[in-house]
Structure formats: C-alpha cells, structure tokens
C-alpha cells in the first residue's frame, strides 16, 4: 500500500497532512492527560485526607523494581528518538527501534513482576483506597505501555522493510510523542507513589 504522502504531488499538501496528524496526536494525548490528571487528583485527594499514608498495616511498596522500570522506559524513549534522528538523516533506524521495543517489553516484564510481588504481599485492589489507587494508576499505565509496544513492533517491521526515510518518518515522530507521554506519566507515578 502506498503511503498518502508519497502520492501527494505538492509539498504544501504533505505539510498540511503532517500538521493535521500532529494536531490529532496532541488532542489524543491531551485527552489521556486529562484522564491521568483525574487519577492523580484522586490519589492526591485521598493522600491529603488520610491520617497516615500509606495507611497503617499496609505493605510497603518496593522501590528497586519501579526504579529499574524508570530506567528502562527512559532508555526506550531515548532509543526511539535516536531512531527518529537516524531516519531523518537517511541512515536507517531499525536497531534503535528494536532497542526501544525490547526496553519497553522489559519494562512491562519488570512491572508484571512488581504486580505479582505486591499482590502476594496482600496489596490487592480491594484492600482499601491506597491499594485501589495504586492498581488504577499502574495498571492503566501498563495498558498504555502495551499499546506502545504494539506500535513499536509495527514501526520495527516497517523499518526493516525500508518504509522510513528523510521524507517519510511521520509515524515514527508521532509514536515518539506518544512514548514520551507514557514516560512522563510513569515518572509522575514513580515520584508520587513509589519515591515518597
């Protein structure tokens, strides 16, 4: 299938298409930012209203696994931007995209290990407000990571087929924006839920 921007004969039409796609991504990310904002607001409200946070008798959350997850997601984002830069230069970007993909998968594996440990410690979603907010934030974020992993896999397949180059890289740019958003949300979760 031929990409739309390959058949448009006028550069200004391609620029308009790219601007429209970017605007669409901003709107999409803005809607998710509002959703996560609501979750963070609920977390903050519960935390401020609580006599003690975490509540007495609540198992402590581990810090090592979330810290490793933070590093993996940062590596994944940097690798995707490296891929975008290489593609824009015409040098190809498959290897950095694969690094980004594997780091994203590793993040989800580490996060799954964390969820199992937390569940085994008794911090299940029905264990109170603290547990409920923890599970809502981390599971919802994990779902977004899963979407990003699928997108990175598609980008890798397309990069392997030579579909991206200096004039054709909009999809990589848009998914890099999404992946940065996922990383920023995770950093906020890490700082507000795990680090304090």
Write the layout of secondary structure elements.
Layout (H helix, E strand, L loop, with lengths): L3 H4 L3 H39 L14 H26 L4 H27 L8 H32 L9 H25 L2
Helix pairs in contact: 2-5, 2-6, 3-4, 3-6, 4-5, 5-6
Report on this structure.
There is one protein chain. This protein has 196 residues and is mainly alpha-helical. It has a single domain (8-54, 62-194), classed as Cytochrome c oxidase, subunit III, four-helix bundle (Four Helix Bundle (Hemerythrin (Met), subunit A)), CATH 1.20.120.80. 78% of the residues lie in helices and 0% in strands. The chain has six helices and no strands. The protein has helices at 4-7, 11-49, 64-89, 94-120, 129-160, 170-194. Helix 3 packs antiparallel against helix 6 (170-194). It is elongated, with a radius of gyration of 19 Å.
Core attributes:
elongated, 196 residues, disordered N terminus, 78% helix, Four Helix Bundle (Hemerythrin (Met), subunit A), single chain, mainly alpha
Which radius of gyration do the C-alpha atoms yield? 19 Å
Distance between the termini: 50 Å
Approximately how much beta-strand content do the residues carry? Answer: under 5%
Find the CATH topology.
Four Helix Bundle (Hemerythrin (Met), subunit A)
Mean pLDDT: 90
CATH class: Mainly Alpha
Helix percentage range: over 70%
Largest sheet: none
Secondary-structure element order, N to C: HHHHHH
Number of domains: 1
Q: Based on DSSP secondary structure assignment, what is the total number of beta strands?
A: 0
Q: Identify the CATH homologous superfamily.
A: Cytochrome c oxidase, subunit III, four-helix bundle
Question: What is the overall number of helices?
Answer: 6
Task: Name the overall outline.
Answer: elongated
CATH architecture: Up-down Bundle
Residue windows where pLDDT falls under 50 for at least 5 positions: 1-8
Find the structural class using helix and strand composition: mainly alpha
